[in-house]
Amino acid sequence: MSAFLYSLNSSTIKPTPILEKIRVASEAGYDAIELWHDDIDAHVSSGGTVKEIRSAVDDNCLEVPTTIFLKGWCEPEGTEYQQGIEECKRRLEQAAVVGAVHSIAGPPLGAVDYDLASQRYGELLDLGLSMGAKPAMEYLGFAEEVNSIADAVRIIDGSGHAEATIVLDPFHDFRGGAGSGDIAKLKASQVAICHFNDAPAEPPAPQQHDPDRVMPGDGIVDLQLFVSLLRQIGYDRWLSLELFREDLWQQDPLEVVQTGLEKMRTVCEL
Q: Does residue 9 contact residue 240 with C-beta atoms inside 8 Å?
């Protein structure tokens, strides 16, 4: 038996309609699915409801670890901040309806005032808790500043919030250059979810972006180290396959996610 629960980040089969994504994840044998707000909005725009999505999740016996993503929450006071928070409220409401435990807070991509970011994240977390879904702090390897575990931890620690968590991702650890070693400094309770993927040897890491990600085990990231560090801190929750490859989007979604699950198990169940 695996030490982890396997989740599908629905970006991996992006063009597939959301209800089909849920069915496919269940049929392939996943424990959970991460849902994107863009997909939820598309379903609603076509005449569906958010409650239908929740029913599909329940009928397929899946969990929803996160919805993706919250943005505009880290602006200074002003119109942009107020608009960002209103959009975060709308998305958090969706997250609560579909049964998500967390909603992922994307980091600011430019220069960062860490004191402000810490304050804003704490406020966002209070808002999410009041609505039923906890915002989790994400770092992105291609962000100007918040591109490592340490950077995300600086924000969650600065918030002083007992419910603060981060999202781990081996691709972003590789792309940002800091690696995954700081996992050892975390508590399992601080990890909302681990996205799971790999990175190719080419192009060089500083030139890679989301579409360059490859299936776990098909790249050069030391995923055995990543997994061993998770075990070391006692993390035993979700590993979520997250890819953004157009070549995979053109293939049969069930075959893609079945292959992804097999590759995750090959890496994680040695």
A: yes
For CA atoms 84, 212, 175, 269, give the dihedral sign.
positive
Distance CA 142, CA 177 (A): 10
Q: What span, in angstroms and rounded, lies between the C-alpha atoms of 237 and 215?
A: 20
pLDDT in tens, 171-201: 999 999 999 999 999 999 999 999 999 999 9
* Cβ 173 vs Cβ 149: under 8 Å: yes
What's the structural domain count of the chain? 1
Residue 259 · residue 215 · CB < 8 Å: yes
**What pTM value is reported for the model?**
0.97
- Residue 146's identity, in one-letter code, is V
What are the helix (H) ranges across 69-109?
79-98
Contact 243, 215 (CB under 8 A): yes
Q: Which domain holds residue 127?
A: 5-268
Amino acid making up residue 232 = Q
Of 95, 119, 222, 103, the closest CA to residue 167 belongs to 103
> Exposed (0-12), middle (13-18) or buried (19+): which is 5, by Cβ within 10 Å?
middle
Please tell me the predicted confidence (pLDDT) of residue 137.
98
Alpha-carbon torsion angle 110, 171, 73, 90, nearest 10: 140
Q: What is the CATH number of the domain that holds 56?
A: 3.20.20.150
Whether pLDDT at 2 is above 80: no
Q: What is the pLDDT of residue 26?
A: 98
Segment holding 192, helix H or strand E: strand 191-196
| Contact by Cβ (8 Å): 161, 120 | no
Is the pLDDT at 68 greater than 60? The verdict is yes
pLDDT of 1 above 70: no
